[in-house]
Structure to design on (429 residues):
């Protein structure tokens, strides 16, 4: 058996443990003090309230103490938590019987995914995911659900197509992907190394990355992303704008065409019956 | 080759991000293959797109450039277009069949594939959730005769 502190060298760090324990104690103190202070039926004594205030003050002090050490916990613990939220709620999305509950679980999954994006340094994308997906797309889906299935569960929601085969397909995909992810190493393989300009022009082979590394966590990151979008990728942005417009016109056209089609079908049926 | 949750290095952060993306992608694949509700199928497709976005951003963090971020912006806008078109199709399908069931369209299957028949459908009671019931708060109000009479004069 492998000792745990070789697997998790960050956790074995002493500062990490002390700040984590202090934070846990602070949160517990706050919860207990709030419980003691809240109005309850039954015993509601003065001493309990005094104890509650005291515990609350202790919790505040502990928060102040841990606030200076919280940097030690780092992004890894946050990453673990938000990715756990994302994965668990994604599993709940596809297994939930009720489609409305599935949509709400999907909203929670989006929150987790945007947390992961924030940890990975994509500030604009984390916010845009919430705004675009949870704010617009998911609400449209919920509108359609409420419109179409006001009665709730139908028989088709309680049964699935080929559950065995699809889970096997998903598991095989996940296994292959995680195999290849585990094989990643810091050295770039020779086959995939991008040729530098000097090597391509026949000069000496210089194995350098073509782009110098940018600090993604800088404070002006969103502005630089905008500069990148509208600088190097301007034509692509215009194309995406046209795509959005075409999707809008297309959806309206499909919907109105369908209505006209059903009306013409009905009118032609009437004409046939008259003749 | 073995995958373990190791923290601290840039490569470990890349691997963890890619792993989350892979899990989301395969969960979305399972959902879109097996579920029969059209809306849940589209939610699964969006789940797959989320997995791809997480992987792209992880690569972008590892290489230290904005390429992955730019691609995710395009993924977002294409997903918005896809949702608009998909909802129109779902609405059309619903107005024609009255159901959000993809099996309602199984006449479009190939000639060699058998018709899918639901043999045993689990009972409704097993899958219905227990909704919480509100406890009565306070006492029931008594009707105020004076207020009722005053209201008639307004």
């Amino acid at each position: 058996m492998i000792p745990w502190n070789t697997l998790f060298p960050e956790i074995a760090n002493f500062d990490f443990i002390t700040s984590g324990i202090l934070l846990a104690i602070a949160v517990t103190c706050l919860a207990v003090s709030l419980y003691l202070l809240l109005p309850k039926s039954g015993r509601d004594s003065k001493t309990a309230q005094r104890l509650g205030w005291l515990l609350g003050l202790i919790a505040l002090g502990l928060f102040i103490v841990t606030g200076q050490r919280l940097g030690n916990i780092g992004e890894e613990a946050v990453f673990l938590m938000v990715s756990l939220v994302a994965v668990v709620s994604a599993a709940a999305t596809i297994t939930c019987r009720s489609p409305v509950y599935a949509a709400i679980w999907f909203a929670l999954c989006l929150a987790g995914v945007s947390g992961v994006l924030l940890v990975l340094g994509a500030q604009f994308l984390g916010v845009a995911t919430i705004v675009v997906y949870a704010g617009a797309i998911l609400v449209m889906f919920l509108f359609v659900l409420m419109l179409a299935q006001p009665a709730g569960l139908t028989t088709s929601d309680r049964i699935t197509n080929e559950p065995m085969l699809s889970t096997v397909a998903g598991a095989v995909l996940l296994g292959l992907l995680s195999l290849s992810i585990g094989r990643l190493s810091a050295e770039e393989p020779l086959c995939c190394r991008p040729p530098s300009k000097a090597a391509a022009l026949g000069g000496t082979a210089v194995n350098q990355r073509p782009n110098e590394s940018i600090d993604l966590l800088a404070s002006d990151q969103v502005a630089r992303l905008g500069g990148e979008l509208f600088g190097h990728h301007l034509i692509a942005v215009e194309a995406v704008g046209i795509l959005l417009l075409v999707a809008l016109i297309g959806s309206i056209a499909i919907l109105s065409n369908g209505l006209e089609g059903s009306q013409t079908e009905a009118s032609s049926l009437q004409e046939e019956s008259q003749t | 080759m073995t995958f373990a949750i190791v923290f601290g290095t840039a490569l470990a952060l890349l691997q963890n991000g890619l792993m989350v993306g892979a899990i989301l992608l395969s969960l979305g694949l399972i959902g879109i293959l097996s579920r029969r509700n059209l809306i849940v199928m589209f939610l699964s497709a969006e789940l797959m797109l989320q997995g791809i976005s997480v992987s792209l951003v992880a690569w972008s963090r590892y290489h230290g450039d904005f390429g992955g971020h730019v691609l995710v912006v395009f993924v977002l806008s294409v997903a918005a277009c896809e949702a608009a078109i998909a909802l129109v199709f779902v609405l059309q399908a619903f107005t024609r069949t009255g159901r959000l069931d993809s099996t309602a369209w199984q006449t479009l299957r190939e000639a060699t594939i058998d018709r899918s028949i639901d043999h045993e459908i689990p009972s409704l009671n097993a899958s219905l959730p227990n909704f919480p019931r509100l406890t009565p708060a306070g006492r029931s109000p008594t009707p105020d005769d004076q207020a009722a009479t005053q209201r008639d004069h307004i």
User: Anything to note?
Assistant: Confidence is low (pLDDT under 50) at residues 1-5 of chain B.
